């Protein structure tokens, strides 16, 4: 008798958010949104690097941000990101987040992630 594999969630995903473009990509590939969420919260990080995989494994207990990356049948890459405080899990296309626009239209500032300055930070009260 074949039994379904039951995956145990490793963390709470918080509020689930998905961009319309990611939702459309999942639907076009016949992938239910819940299957992506279940893989993510069960610790199946998808196609992330070994370094990111190790970081995610540590981040579960340390309370840091968690990142998964899945490739759909049409080669679209779906990014799943859970915030450090587990308040939100966001699903979006990697192509909409990555900065390698390669001539594509620039996203409005309100839709971009912040770019952190490369210079060192100065503590308050010190200069």
Q: What report would you give on this structure?
A:
- There is one protein chain.
- The protein is an alpha+beta fold and 127 residues long.
- It has a domain at 15-96.
- 28% of the residues lie in helices and 17% in strands.
- It contains four helices and four strands.
- The chain has a four-stranded mixed sheet with strand order 1-4-3-2.
- The radius of gyration is 17 Å and the shape is globular.
- The model is unreliable at 110-127 (pLDDT under 50).
- Rg is 17 Å
Helical run tally? 4
Number of strands: 4
Summarize the main sheet: 4 strands, mixed
Query: Helix/strand-derived class?
Result: alpha+beta
The coarse silhouette is globular
pLDDT under 50 segments (min length 5)?
110-127
What would you call the quaternary organization? single chain
Fraction in beta strands: 15-25%
The helical percent reads 25-40%
Instruction: Please write the string of helix (H) and strand (E) elements.
Output: EHHHEEEH
> How far is it from the N-terminal to the C-terminal residue, by CA?
70 Å
Average pLDDT for all residues: 82
Spatial arrangement of strands, main beta sheet: 1-4-3-2
């Amino acid at each position: 008798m074949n039994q379904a594999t039951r995956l145990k969630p490793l963390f709470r995903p918080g509020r689930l958010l998905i961009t319309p473009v990611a939702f459309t990509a999942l639907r076009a590939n016949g992938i239910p949104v819940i299957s992506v969420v279940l893989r993510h919260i069960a610790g199946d990080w998808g196609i992330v690097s070994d370094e990111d995989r190790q970081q995610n494994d540590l981040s579960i207990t340390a309370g840091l941000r968690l990142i998964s990356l899945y490739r759909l049948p049409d080669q679209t890459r779906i990014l799943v990101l859970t915030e450090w405080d587990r308040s939100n899990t966001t699903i979006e296309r990697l192509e909409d987040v990555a900065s390698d626009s390669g001539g594509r239209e620039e996203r409005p500032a309100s839709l971009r992630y912040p770019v952190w300055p490369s210079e060192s930070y100065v503590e308050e009260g010190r200069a």
